[in-house]
Design a protein that fits this description.
This protein is an all-beta fold. It has one domain. The protein has strands at 5-8, 14-17, 22-26, 31-34, 39-42, 49-53, 56-61, 66-69, 74-77, 84-85. Strand 9 and strand 10 (84-85) form a beta hairpin. 12% of the residues are buried.
């Protein structure tokens, strides 16, 4: 089983550990969260949600107030109503 680790530096950039070295995989974000399936991040101005899958960032959602990352799912909180979406 291969463990994947992520961390952010003071600038906000996110890095991934490949078992040997740390590599920058993205620039600053408002917030990042990960589970066993995916790393997700909110853009700095909170206007979009991005997922890091198979070595690439893909936009997966629009504006959010926050994200909640569970063991198998990711939820977004609507910035206007505070409703939770899957």
């Amino acid at each position: 089983m291969c463990m994947v680790l992520f961390f952010t530096v003071p600038s906000g950039d996110v890095h991934q550990y490949d078992g040997c070295c740390w590599h920058k995989i993205g620039g600053p974000g408002y917030k990042f969260g990960a589970n066993k399936d995916v790393l997700v991040g909110i853009s700095p101005n909170k206007d979009s949600v991005w997922a890091f899958l198979n070595g690439h960032w893909t936009k997966v959602g629009g504006p959010v107030f926050d994200i909640i990352v569970g063991p198998h799912q990711v939820f977004g909180i609507n910035p206007c109503t505070r409703d939770i979406y899957k």
